[in-house]
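Deviation from plan, reported transparently: iron/sulfur cluster complex.
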Amino acid sequence: LDRKVKQNIWEENNFINYKKMSENLAVVRQRLNRPLAYAEKILYSHLDDPHGQDIERGVSYLRLRPDRVACQDATAQMAILQFMSAGMPSVANPTTVHCDHLIEAQIGGAKDLERAISINKEVYDFLASACAKYNIGFWKPGSGIIHQILLENYAFPGGLLIGTDSHTPNAGGLGMCAIGVGGADAVDVMANLPWELKAPKVIGVKLTGKMSGWTTPKDIILKVAGITTVKGGTGAIMEYHGPGTETISCTGMATVANMGAEIGATTTVFPFNDRMYDYLAATKRKDIGDFARTYAKELREDEGVEYDQLIEINLSELEPHINGPFTPDLATPISKFSAAVKANNWPEELKVGLIGSCTNSSYEDMSRAAAIARDALDHGLKSKAVFTVTPGSEQVRATIERDGQLQTFEEYGGVVLANACGPCIGQWDRRDVKKGEANSIISSYNRNFTGRNDGNPATHSFVASPDLVVAMTVAGSLHFNPLTDKLKDKDGNEFMLAEPTGHALPALGYDPGQDTYQAPPADRTTVSVAVSPSSDRLQVLSPFAAWDGKDAIDLPILIKCKGKTTTDHISMAGPWLKYRGHLDNISNNMLIGAINEANGEANKVKNFTTGEFDAVPAVARDYKKKGIQWVVIGDWNYGEGSSREHAALEPRHLGGLAIITRSFARIHETNLKKQGMLPLTFSDPADYDKIKPDDKVDILCTELEVGKPITMVVHPKDGKPFEIKLSQTFNASQIEWFKNGSALNTMAKKNAA
Ligand code: SF4
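Because the crystal trials were delayed, the predicted structure below was used instead.
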């Protein structure tokens, strides 16, 4: 295990450290003395402190040292802006940025890409220059979708990766523990802070048998989603194992891992096997495959491991599925689908079929899909529905262009879109139906929530394998079942589509296509980061001010929130996403969805200095201008939802000091601490009712100590002041974050020392 094997072909100095991993694991094994799941082995071998760390699945918080960080272009903006404010010369851990989310599908790959480059120029210029400055690998627009690029270049068995995108688990197809996180977590790892994760439970999925005919790896996860529902994987890693795993291609396993996100799983892993070795060899990483073989014993589960839950699937009996509409866990086997369409009155005509995306755009997917399209063409038929193809990477696009599948799709009537997310993330200028018109589309993507693809809430979006998508486009109807139904050829003769066949890997090897990678330059000192001061999409962050060392006296309550206050209420998404790289602009959405207890309305609070009602961000800005800090009072589980760091950055930016609630969603609570705010909870939750929106409060910050409550003095508008105890969960290093103004200020201070 002493060998020096590089993590990838792009970086000279980043190696796979199986030796250190095995040493850490030996320590943990001795402590736990029980068989371990593969997911556990990966996590525990990346512990910051394998000797001292508490380890209890579903209970402890693990402090981990990931091997890599990856960001997509939408989430990278704020992550990098924050990292910059730490004042470090380069990222502390290998990091890459991928331009894929901002490219809108309109007429076809090349033109759409050109348009996106012009519309998003300032964002791309910023990312390209910041990556060059801070030693980050930059994948330009047109290179492909983050998860395909990671699988093709960066994933390796036993590794731990965090990525600022929910489908990061895709790399589990190559035996990596790859976890989707918020930008704040990515910044921690870039800045060399340990990364915290609640020790996940492990759900085992045992695969036996072998797929055949129309069944594909996608159908495994469509079936699993039907069993677990969209919440079934929450707080757990899905661990596939059993002889069936040997029969699935590496990219097929990645499809299954990718869609584990749809059941809420922390991630999904597959054990290292020969199919992964073959894929590594085909993608110029045979040395990694060989190295993994020497560590193979630890790249799978221990014999006798006990899973928190076990699901068993016999692949020989697995039917193709179609899931949806509106949710990915409504799973219907193809044999029952036509009846379900009738029973539910789903629009029968198939308007659009879409294949590709990060979920299903492997060479195998493309070659099987092309085989079906070719079969139809041989019978004189073309797609009845609109048909689009999204290659997941430039490498896949170039390879299917060379090998002819791409021409087949075009002959069949398909439009080949840019190597990017496109319609999967709503970047789709769809013109074949009007907004509000009920219609059906079917894709090989992963998510199908209302409006996700085209912004039309009446679109019934289904997900299936690329095979079924293409077959359905031949018929143009949701009633078609290619396993049993006949079609009519151009002369009116009946025929059945042949079972699809394809190649897991291209016989001639991959064609890399155009060079779309920008390596950081050797001399980075002269690089300057491009941010226009007049930009409304990007803004350089100034470090937040340190605590003044005093108690905070006579603070107004900006808003006392009633009921649910999720991260969407605190920092709404939708049109605001455009400003995710501009803290001041996006702060205009702060808490606009929260309900004010005083009047039962959203975004209408009283400014105590004027007596006037105004929007929440406007009042906060007015207080800030007048030098008045403020607090928010919240109800139960404040900040649930996503890990969006903007929900913590905005109140800090607009002058908030403390958020005081009955309870917090943990990730949001940590995010607030990172930004130098005080997340506090009522020691007695009933005290929430004692506070009125017009009260003023003193927060005795000087009492802040590990494990001790702090006092809040409430000054009611009419009546005598009284004290309330507030609990807090700061540890010693987090108290430093508060004192220094933020976690990043603390890192910057350490670096300067
Ligand atoms: Fe996310 Fe879709 Fe892009 Fe995949 S293709 S990364 S699911 S937006």
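The CA atoms of residues 272 and 297 lie 9 Å apart. We consider this an acceptable substitute for the interim report.
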